[in-house]
Amino acid sequence: MKSSIFFIILLAIIFNGNLISQNVPTTMNYHGKLSNSGGQPLNEEVSIVFNLYTFENGGISLWTESHENLLVSNGIFDVLLGSLDSFPADVFNNPQLYLGITVNGDGEMSPRSVLSSVPYAIKSGSGESDGVWQTSGENIYRESGKVGIGVAEPVSELQVAGTVKATNEEPFSAGVIANGTGFGVMAQSGHTGVFTTGGMYGIWSIADVNSNPNASAGYFMGKVGIGTIADCQLDVADGQISVSGKGAPNSGSSLELSYDYGNGRGEVFAFDRTNNLYKDLRLDGSHVRINATANTGNVSIGTGDNDGRLHVYNGSFSGPVLFLEGGAPDEGDIAWKDNEHLQMGRWNKTDDTFQKVVEITNTHAIHLFNQDGDNRVKIQSSESGADGAQISLYDDEGNAVIVLDAQHGGQPGDPARIITETLEITGGSDLAEPFEISGTSVEKGFLVCIDPENPGMVKLSEKSYDKCVAGIASGANNINPGLILKQEGTIADGEVPVALSGRVYCKADASFGKIKPGDLLTTSITPGHAMKAKNHRKAQGAIIGKAMTGLDSGTGWVLVLVAMQ
Length: 565
Prior knowledge:
- Among the domains are: 3-124, Immunoglobulin-like (Sandwich); 241-297, no CATH class; 430-562, Head decoration protein D (Virus Head Decoration Protein, Chain: A).
- Strand 17 (253-260) and strand 18 form a beta hairpin.
- The chain is elongated.
- The longest helix is centred in the N-terminal third of the chain and has 5 residues, at 120-124.
- A 9-stranded antiparallel β-sheet has the order 23-24-25-26-27-28-29-30-31, with no helix packed on it. It has a 5-stranded antiparallel β-sheet with strand order 16-17-18-19-20, with no helix packed on it.
- It is mainly beta.
- 2% of the residues lie in helices and 40% in strands.
């Protein structure tokens, strides 16, 4: 059956006591009357759907609630809106709301009902109060707590998130006055205070300048001037601005802003009034000083933390953390760029490019790059995080051609290793092993033989054609050993390096035969001296090597190519 609305009445719920001080219900009683198309009141059960809109026609529903089997008696019905589906918390933030009604699915009735101010009491009462508002005549007040306007948690007795404006029909009245002997925001002598109207500017003072020559005066018209008409937002003439904490006069610390007429420069500095010393920070001319008198203090850029003398935080900035501009325009000599790793290189501001030279990774490794950005050197404090350090050098194809591994194999006790294709040694010319010496001391260039009575030790040679010959003590005539092989702390270690291969100078005795280059040499009865091997049968197993220089007579030096046989 097609229904039409005859009239609809919005009824407010009954509140006991002051509206602000009580808990306000979050439902709304709705009373209405329905009749059919012939104007006859309905007497039946109906289904009614209620919707809230911000538009008189159309729009999106902000809230909906459906009441089924609602009894209509003699056309009258009552319903408690919000009892089935709660109103959204912010629905009454809208300046105007319209209620749409649909009966038995016949389509929404027109026009929509405009909500009165009563439902907005729900919004005003939704917050809890930490105090009690009281009234005195037309005045409203509270004896404790704080009041916030636009602020949920005020930090002072009255905190307003917005603008406060005081007006009065009398043009020279103050808007805000402080209790006690001091002034809040107040005008005297017929002048406006801080807020002005009608194009007038304001002048204020804390005392009558005519009766008190020490009184401070100000000039205000969008800008503040102290002792002068302001040319900027705050203009101080022939004076100094000091911001300090509470305390005795001329004591404690303050922030000073002043102008040095003698040097023609402005200054901003922290000042210790008690000891009459500059401290913490001073800006004067082109200089910035950080606690210059005490030699202490930190500087932070981009962060409030102070974890070092200079603490710089880059955040989401894509440029370098530190940029030092060199002689070339717009090109930095050094720049630190902090992404996942710490990088140092050159930054070009013109094309916004960064050429990294050094990179320190978060795995404690240092990489060195060439001008093409290719990694050529890698230094690791630990190859895998649990073993020794490693240094790798790369060729132009990115291959590691030289590796210095402090713990090859990565297991505890594994030896160090140098891995390369070719090893060139320029500091010496023979391969030697150090031996402990038994008996008589051995000089450089002397022949030594295996000591059968002391395992692992050698002694000075003392007989000819000695098959126990071991080598020549290395280092004579400034020909040093090129490579020394040993294992410290074992029998394969000692004090005297003995040449086992290569070129080395040797003491020789030509009394047993003139020595020519190419002659085979063996031991002689002259202690530590070599001689020419004439008896090849006896020389088998006793040859120390071949002579590379000659010796005609007596004793002297012969360069020997060590090749024992």
